[in-house]
Amino acid sequence: VVGPAVALVRAGGMPRALPGDDDFAPGTQTLQAAYGLSLVALRSLADAHGTRAVVALYRAAAGGIAVPTGRLDDREAVVDTALQATMGTTRGRLVKDWQARLRSLLR
Q1: Global pTM?
Q2: Secondary structure (3-state) at 67
Q3: How far is CA 15 from CA 9, 20, 78, 107, in A?
Q4: Is the pLDDT of residue 4 over 90?
Q5: 3-class DSSP state of 107
Q6: Which residues are CB-neighbours of 4 under 8 A, at least 6 positions away?
Q7: Among 33, 34, 40, 85, which residue has the least CB neighbours within 10 Å?
């Protein structure tokens, strides 16, 4: 599953951000890589915080948390709030840990 992600990183360099909605659009040439990159991010979270925390994050981001935002459809704010509430971390920290894990997969 992570093979296409590693190949994408080798070919295009280290991503600066987690995969977004556009990366998962049907017909995207890098769809498999997006799933692999996401798996690496989730594995990084699970290793640092445990599988239960990942489940709690998913539940919180799926609607189990109050988000202080004016837009109910602001998914980025929902995820950021859920990361802080369930794991005490930030998107920035997650991205740094994810990039470190990707670097280790390139070796």
Answers
A1: 0.89
A2: coil
A3: 7, 11, 22, 17
A4: yes
A5: coil
A6: 30, 32, 33, 36
A7: 85
